[in-house]
Amino acid sequence: MGSRENRVSLRPADRTRARATAALLVAGALLVAITLVLPHPSGGDNIALSLTALGMAVAGGAVWSLAGGISSPVLHALLAGISVVTCLLIYESGIAVGQYGTIFVWATLITSLYFPRRVAAAHLGWLLATYGTVLLFVENTAGYSPLTRWLFSCISLSVVMLLVTGIAARRARADERARRFFDLSRDMLCTATPDGYFLELNDAWTANLGYSLDELRLVPFIERVHPDDRERTETEAAALFAGSGTTMSFENRYRAKDGSWHWLRWSSQVSPDESLIYARAANVTELKRFEAEREELLGKVQDMARHDSLTGLPNRHALEEQLPQEMARARRAGSPLCVALIDIDHFKDYNDTQGHLAGDEVLRACAAAWDESLRGEDTLVRFGGEEFLVLLPRTDPAQAAEIVERLRARTPMEQTCSAGLACWGFTETIDELLGRADQALYLAKAGGRDQLAEAPVRA
User: Fold this and answer.
1) DSSP label at residue 210
2) What residue ranges do the domains of the chain occupy?
3) Nearest-angstrom CA–CA distance, 313 and 306
4) Handedness of CA 441, 447, 450, 454 (dihedral sign)
5) Fewest C-beta atoms under 10 Å: which of 17, 309, 310, 341?
6) What does the pLDDT look like over 221-277, one tens digit per residue?
7) Phi and psi dihedrals of 253, rounded to 5?
8) Reduced to 3 states, what is the DSSP secondary structure of residue 226?
9) Per-residue pLDDT, 424
10) Out of 92, 386, 387, 414, which one is annotated catalytic?
11) Which fold has domain 188-287?
12) Per residue in 91-125, pLDDT tens?
């Protein structure tokens, strides 16, 4: 974890500049070594050149290894020192030859590419000043006067600086425009490494989750994913690299800085070389909450549509769904199925004399008493008005009659009821079965009420 903190604490640009400077030192040392191996003008101090080259190589290696910890002021000092060391090489060689001027070109390219034009011009000015100074002390200027050689170098290096800084400036402006679009997006945009660390993030991450961008880069993404979603997330990430290289509308929960969980909907794509992941995350927490509330409300509405508001019992709509299922189950198992219609006796007269509120109380009391008297597999339905239906699966006519009589005996509030019982014959329709139960109920009421009548079993 400590190494990761060091990696993210410094700006990537500083690290890149430091490594470019290190490469310049190593390349300069290699150039000196090649110069010493190949035929070259005599008169120089080869030992001094070798030691200088060795020092450049060692310094380049050190700078490369410490690139993440080198700040901009130190980096400027290093680049300025390279100009001095190059002039020292020219002095030790005894001749102002072009091969060491190559280091000047490389140094100018680096400063022009990675720094603003005014900073690059300052470095070039320092380089030309040190070069002009060494030309005054070198005896051999390869056929040109010191001034001529210096002017040629000044013109060529200035052209290089102007061209490269112009290109770098245009690229920087394009990057800035892209960055503004990146930061202005309300979606959470990012790039990440294959091992799950964020590299670039826009400010929408802070706005949505509360972390600073450095805090987000500090730990692998998966560490803040909800435990229940980690396996799915890892599977999706593996498929991202093993499959088409794209992810569309994958959702998981991510912990915010305040400890809350936020639903994120991801779209992502792997770079062609699989070294980078480009991703967009939308915070859909509110949408998820709205969907959950909608589903809960829909469930309540559907439940209300299937239940009687007065008694809380299933209604005819629920019966229309359940009865075909019970009939299909009975047909498959070859088990009996009975239904009974129960009607509260003289309920209309009671309603008219006692009032509708009293009548409603009777309906609620009967529903509660009868429902408590049934077995777990039986169903009591508010069929309409003062009529109730009892659905009795896996029950033969004798058992069904016993259950219905038990219900009638427990009719509360000094009320009585009549009942009609019918057992399904496996071939008749729902309407025919209910019609026979209704006919039996009619016979019970016609016979004086407060009794059970059974419809003949249809073969």
Assistant:
1) -
2) 2-182, 188-287, 308-454
3) 8
4) negative
5) 309
6) 999 999 999 999 988 888 887 776 677 788 999 999 999 999 999 988 888 888 888
7) -105, 140
8) coil
9) 93
10) 386
11) Beta-Lactamase (3.30.450)
12) 888 777 667 888 888 888 888 888 888 999 999 99
| 8 Å CB contact between 111 and 68 | no
pLDDT value, residue 7: 37
Contact 399, 335 (CB under 8 A): no
d(CA 51, CA 45): 10
- What's the whole-number mean pLDDT along residues 47-64? 86
Q: CB within 8 A of 45, min separation 6: which ones?
A: 92, 93, 94
Tally of CB atoms within 10 A around 97: 17
Model confidence over 384-422: pLDDT tens digits?
899 999 999 999 999 999 999 999 999 999 999 999 999
The DSSP result for 372-413, as a single string, is HHS-TT-EEEEEETTEEEEEEET--HHHHHHHHHHHHHT--T
pTM: 0.47
Residue that is written with structure tokens 């200027």 in the block: 141
386 is catalytic: yes
Q: Which amino acid is at 122?
A: A
- Supply the mean pLDDT for the chain: 86
Rounded distance, CA 319 to CA 325, Å? 10
By three-state DSSP, how is residue 16 classified?
helix
Residue indicated by tokens 């003062």: 386
Alpha carbon 314 to chain centroid distance? Answer: 42
Residue (of 219, 220, 291, 214) closest to 251 by Cα position: 291
Architecture of domain 308-454: 2-Layer Sandwich (3.30)
CA distance 112 to 165: 5
- 386 contacts 445 by C-beta, under 8 angstroms: no
98-114 and 146-184 are packed helices; what angle lies between their axes, rounded to 10 degrees?
A: 30
CA–CA separation, 265 vs 252, rounded Å?
7
Contact 330, 425 (CB under 8 A): no
- The type of residue at 387 is E
What's the angle, vertex CA 325, arms to CA 321 and CA 329, rounded to 5?
Answer: 170
